[in-house]
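Limitations
The structure tokens in this dataset are predictions for the assembled complex, not deposited experimental models. Users should treat interface geometry with appropriate caution, especially where small molecules or nucleic acid strands are included. An illustrative entry is reproduced here so readers can see what is and is not provided.
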Amino acid sequence: MSTNSFGRTHRMLFTSGCTQAHRNVGRALLLALVAGIVAVPSNAYAYMDPGTGSMIYQTLLALLLGVGLLFHGLRTKIRAVLHRLFHRNPAGIESRDAQSGK
Amino acid sequence: METDRIAGSFRDPAGHVFVEQGVVYRQINEAGKDDYDQLTRSGLYDALVAARVLIPHDDLGLPADAGPEVYKIIRPTHLPLVNYPYEWCFSQLKDAALLTLAAQRRALHAGMCLKDASAYNVQFLDGRPILIDTLSFEGLIPGPWKAYRQFCQHFLGPLALMSAVDVRLGRTLQSFIDGLPLRVVSRSLPRRTWLRPGPLIHLHLHAWADEHLGRRGEPGAAANGSRGVKASLLHSLEAATTRLRWRPRSSWVGYYEDRESYSAEAAEHKADLVAEWLDAIEPRTVWDLGANTGRYSRLASERGAATIAFDQDVACVETMYLEVKQRGDHNLLPLVMDFTNPSPSLGWASEERASLVQRGPAEVALVLALEHHLAFANNVPLDRLARFLRGIGRHVLVEFVPSSDPMALRLIRDRRDLFTGYHQDAFEAAFRGVFTLERCARLRGSERVLYWMRA
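Predicted assembly:
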């Protein structure tokens, strides 16, 4: 008798604060990943190291995760710019910059 | 001096573990020299030890009689009991997974990488998981993370099954000692898990790719990637692992609280006797068989004994583990163990993983309110039980539960004719052949009898 939970949201790839638009991008990337897997050319090898499939998959996965991180980085930058433009009190940002010596 | 190579330590050419006069050492070969030196010189070893991620060791240098392949001998901190992933509850496996990822994160920062992510590289020490394989670190090389699939097979797959299907599936790690095949995991998980990014990416699609791309591609196709790629994979694995949850619920948790079987007076008397006899024995190691939520195990751990609290119910072990974590009880380690089918010896030549009996005996075995379960539910004859316990503890504190006891009556119900030979005299006769009686006492307000016997 146990209760099970996998969590509720789609925040595994991109850190917290995802919007619906981000999730749609994530889904599109997943589709691209699946398409990438299917498109890998077929070679006839009698024997292959059992980990090879996993290694090739990881290379494809890297694309997805890399784009995800890039997207997350861009989002953070855009947010910071918008924050500076529309908020009168960017004290937090200034004080942080001051602390880091910028 | 007697030297024994640990049977499970043979896969890594960089070194192996051996025992000399009861002390465990790790030999580092010339093949592992560069990676070991990088580990120590980069400051990664100190950082990992300070963060309690990696087991500390003493560097003993090169012994005079060492062979040409030997670079160094190190002596890691002693572990009270080697334990295996199929003996862990959900949170123990999850904490071990997160520890492995934490080690990988720190390694990447230091320009190194974990070359394997085996759950057998993690042990529980002082109530917390710790990485014991000092030779798991290698210099960072371009390309994907070699241990990615192993991590999914040893950690993420079993955790997902335990979380989404049944927590007892953790025991399947006993059959698949190289980790659960991803195809097995993917086909066993419910369909809803295809909608969740962690299981979808790292288990379902990974399983599909593992099966199909291995035949289609070639190893060279995978040879690109960077530290950033490994870091983003790591980030995703951390999120996927953290998201997996399981909440313990079982009829055995709360057993002591909702007891109608015997009085609080008897339970208290039992605790007093156990405490008194433990004080007389002063053991360094105690195994509590059928510990439930560890009420009596804590009597031993509070007295400084390295105590293992075994129970076959994962919910009980989970409850104990979370409590141990919260209270910081360094002496108590809860483990899942079914005494009708204790851990066997496993792996190559049937000796890679030691059986429970091979890891014993403890100085004291607590066998409290367990004997009747084995005798009634598993039909174990009393003389066989006595012989088994002799291999488990040098002293045993065993509680005899008569067939008239309300809890025993529940177990035998309409099978009473099977147990006509089960009574106190027969119990004493069976144990007298194997043990020497030290003390015995009837528990107040009950028909149960507590014995202290010595092998």
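Some entries come with short summary sentences. For this one: Residues 20-40+49-99 of chain A form one domain.
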